[in-house]
Amino acid sequence: MVKLPISDYVNNFYKEQGIEFTYRQQARLCWTGYSLLKEKINSLKEILEISDDEQLNQEMMERIVFEEKAYERFLVNNESGVIYTVKSKIKEDYDEYFASAKAAISYGIRNFEKGFRIDKCFLLDKYPEELTEGKVIEEVNPIQASYVYTSQGEPEYGWSYECEAGFEEDDSNRFENMFLNIKSPFGLGDIVMGPDWEYPQVVSTDYDAFYEVYEICERSTVFIIPEAADNCIRTDEVRPDGEFDYSHTYPFDLWKIDSWEDEKYWKILQVLSKAIKAGINLCDLSYMIYEYKKEH
Question: CB-based burial of residue 53 (10 Å sphere; 0-12 exposed, 13-18 middle, 19+ buried)?
């Protein structure tokens, strides 16, 4: 099996459950879980070498060909009216613009410690008339393609309007978008840590969370297909300012912990865990406390 971008804890959990991922499920986990575009593409190529799923193989080939072609085209600028604008990954304001992708990437590496985004755009006064489709210039989108980079200049993901995919990218039946109708790797009250987290959080959904989502969609009178984004669990936390918060969290790169270096915070986590296991909805409790403070 291809090396999957899941934590050792999650990997061992599924092994203990006797759950083996199909090639399609492996492709979905790789496409969703790997951070870098090259990791996503390389993992699909590895699965393609061993997969006997013809439909999946076609979908993976389509994705690989499109991503490689789109990024190659993004890097080439043969238009005098096209520029590359660079901005921080965490801010929306543009910083600088360049005539080449190479110069834009170099600038991003030197100036953005948290990563950056590059948009390939037409200058408004150079926008091709055949692309305006009768619209005034203020109504057109000058962005032709956009990619997000790490601080080291590695592309993570992107969008391309100058290169057509040749397939329906939003099709929920494709491997990139498929819902994993499997047991969640975490249960109520589990205290978990994530690769980019500063503090642990507490799980407030049970092991059957994904089964329940699937069943709700199946029973719905309105046609609903669960998708990849629905494979999330709720995790609760207490922020440094003492306020309660929660997140809809991608679970497959998390791991369960049974201790934490900050003993005071660990006691808070244990209280949250016991409350969740006792059936207390902390989101409801937090709202009730908020309303009570307003009235008193």
Answer: middle
Q: What is the pTM of this model?
A: 0.88
Give me the amino acid identity at 163.
Answer: C
CA pair distance 282, 271, nearest whole angstrom: 11
Phi, psi for 197 (deg, rounded to 5): -85, 150
From first to last of its 296 residues, the chain has per-residue pLDDT tens of: 789 999 999 999 999 999 999 999 999 999 999 999 999 999 999 999 999 999 999 999 999 999 999 999 999 998 888 999 999 988 776 678 999 999 999 999 999 999 999 999 988 777 676 666 666 655 666 889 999 999 999 999 999 989 989 899 989 899 999 999 999 999 999 999 999 899 999 999 999 999 999 999 988 888 888 999 999 999 999 887 777 889 999 999 999 999 999 898 999 899 999 999 998 887 777 767 766 676 65
Run of H or E residues at 28 = helix 23-33
Contacts (Cβ under 8 Å, ≥6 apart) of 39: 5, 30
Exposure class string for 224-250: b at 16+ Cβ within 10 A, else e: eebbbebbbbbbbbbeeeeebebeebe
Count other Cβ atoms within 10 Å, centred on residue 16. 8
For residue 154, the number of C-alpha atoms closer than 13 Å in the C-beta half-sphere is: 10
Tokens of 209: 């969370």
CA 254 to chain centre: 14
**Burial environment of residue 84 by CB neighbours within 10 A (0 to 12, 13 to 18, 19 or more):** buried
